[in-house]
Amino acid sequence: MSKLLHISGSPRGTDAESLRVAEVFLDAYRDAHPGDTIEHWDLWDGSLPGFAVGAKAKMTVFSGAEPQGEEGEAWNAARRVFERFDAADRLLFSLPMWNHSVPYVVKQFIDVVSQPGWVFGFDAEKGYTGLLAGRGKKAAVLSTSAVWAPGLPPSFGTNFMSPYFTDWLHWTGIDDVTEIGFHPTVTGDWDAARADVDARARELAKGF
Question: According to its UniProt entry, what is the function of this protein (predicted)?
Answer without folding.
Answer: Also exhibits azoreductase activity. Catalyzes the reductive cleavage of the azo bond in aromatic azo compounds to the corresponding amines.
